[in-house]
Fold:
Amino acid sequence: MKGRYFASSSGRSPVYDFIRELPSQTAKEVHHAVDMLEAGVMLAMPLSRPLTGISSGLHELRFRDSVGQVRIFYLLKKGDAIYLVHAFRKKTRQMPHKEIEVVLKRIKLL
Structure:
């Protein structure tokens, strides 16, 4: 399956922009994880975990760098693609509700 970045109505991809601004080593790790997903490798903890309680097919990629924790949400649509729908820096133990709202809104647009 091919990896695709969520794009807004203007054509801009906030996930792509987020990854581009990460430290180079972290960005390399993200690209490597996406390459593995595209090759059909099912990733598991600690790199990835399913978020089926939020939405079917939703997962998060989990990274840590010198600044903190990075989360990238992706949606597996069988027979279609892997959609990278949202990315942010996690600052608390709980998943912020505003981040979940963004993810759900973007999934509806796919």
Summary: The CA atoms of residues 64 and 70 lie 6 Å apart. The beta strands are 2-5, 48-50, 58-64, 69-77, 81-90. The helical segments are 14-20, 24-38, 97-109. The mean pLDDT is 93.
